[in-house]
Specification:
Order of helices and strands: HEEEHEEEHHEEEHEHEHEEHHHH
Number of strands: 13
Number of helices: 11
CATH superfamily of the largest domain: P-loop containing nucleotide triphosphate hydrolases
Helix content: 40-55%
Strand order of the largest sheet: 4-10-11-3-12-13
CATH architecture of the largest domain: 3-Layer(aba) Sandwich
Distance between the termini: 29 Å
Strand content: 15-25%
CATH class of the largest domain: Alpha Beta
Shape: globular
Largest sheet: 6 strands, mixed
Number of domains: 2
């Protein structure tokens, strides 16, 4: 039996020291990086961790219900609730909160937010703030005298904008806390801040911008000279591995968050000397399920994920090309069909997790006879 998310959060808080073998001294852990599949509970973990650090019950989804900033600054799905789109007015409005008030009204960082947003989206797509910094309209600036027309942005662009606000805020916070003498800081709002929790930032980015985002976060963390500690969760293996490579010289720990059959959780420490291997992990999970006889439909999804990523890398147009041949030049259409049926569902809540004995035999056969697995050792 595993642990609850509250217990996992307690483990993360407790794991703040790492022994340096050569010097035989204990150093503070600055970063904890966590990989977890979608639906595992990353956002719920961020909430559990926030409430553990803040030492209070949830009273609302607003990030800061008090007059001062708390001990933790976090970015997750609930952060986006501070912003809401109004279709009739083509505006993104901001709910009243201390975070955006400070970064926009007090620090005047609207231009830096706009620049960060354009780096991840389009250098012509421009956010225009109203004078009270409570709403934003977007337009494509053409560099001429014509009045640009306001446009509706996509959900992905909206997420990018919200992340750009948070990123700019956090960058400013780090600069404030880097001033060692408290009396010399430009504000005392962050003196009690100890933790930053970032949950899956901007999953809608393409791979190039996702790499850029990971590098930006790593640079920001390296720039932090205070005792601020970071927890970062993601379901994206590329984002995870880029952060690993960028932070390998920092004081950090790597984890894998798993949800067990009984609904509890396990936080597994990962080796520090090598990046997380997404394909190897999926393969090991399928093999473990086969050996234990506890196969479910989502294991077909794992197999499809491996086939899709590998076929793209090898230049195949169809992941089915990687399946074993029943006879030379001929593949069994049933194999592709069962993988498709078992790895997609119109309604996840109605999905049946059990599979037939024949399906289990098929999955075992494919794992033993698909040649690409010879390379995943």
């Amino acid at each position: 039996m595993g642990q609850s998310l509250i217990q996992i959060a307690q483990n993360l808080r407790a794991a703040t020291h790492i022994r340096q073998a050569v010097a035989e001294r204990t150093l503070d852990v600055k970063v904890q990086l966590i990989y977890a599949f979608n639906g595992t509970g990353k956002t719920r973990l961020s909430r559990a961790f926030k409430n553990l650090i803040a030492q209070r019950e949830i009273v609302a989804d607003e990030q800061v219900p008090t007059e001062e900033f708390e001990k933790i600054l976090y970015y997750n799905a609930f952060t986006e609730d501070l912003f809401y789109w109004v279709n009739d007015e083509l505006k993104l409005k901001i709910q009243n909160n201390l975070f955006t008030d400070w970064i926009l009204k007090d620090e005047g960082q609207d231009q830096n937010i706009a620049s960060n947003f354009q780096r991840y989206t389009n250098d012509k797509l421009t956010p225009n703030f109203d004078e009270n910094f409570t709403e934003i309209q977007f337009s494509f600036e053409r560099g001429n005298d014509e009045q640009p027309e306001n446009v509706k942005i996509s959900k992905g662009e909206e997420s990018c904008f919200i992340w750009s606000v948070f990123y700019t805020l956090l960058s400013q916070v780090i600069d404030v806390l880097n001033v060692a003498e408290i009396a010399e800081r430009s504000t005392n709002k962050f003196n009690e801040l100890e933790w930053v929790f970032i949950d899956d930032p901007v999953s809608s980015l393409d791979e190039n911008h996702l790499i850029e985002l990971a590098v930006d976060i790593a640079k920001m963390i390296k720039r932090s000279r205070s005792n601020l500690k970071f927890v970062i969760t993601t379901h994206n293996p590329l984002f995870y591995n880029v952060l690993h490579n960028e932070l390998r010289d920092e004081r950090y720990k790597k984890h894998l968050l798993k949800i067990l059959e009984d609904g509890t959780f396990e936080l597994v420490n990962q080796p520090h000397d090598s990046p997380f291997s997404y394909h190897l992990f999926l393969k090991s999970e399928i093999k473990r399920a086969i050996d234990s006889g506890q196969l479910s439909k989502y294991h077909f999804n794992f197999l499809r994920n491996i086939l899709e990523k590998t076929s793209t890398f090898l230049g195949h147009q169809n992941w089915g090309d990687l399946l074993p041949e029943r006879t030379p030049g001929e593949r069994d259409a049933y194999w592709s069909r069962i993988i498709n049926l078992s790895s997609h569902s119109k309604n996840a809540n109605e999905e049946v997790f059990d599979i037939t004995e024949n399906d289990k035999r098929v999955l075992g056969y494919l794992m033993d006879n698909t040649k690409i697995f010879e390379f995943f050792k």
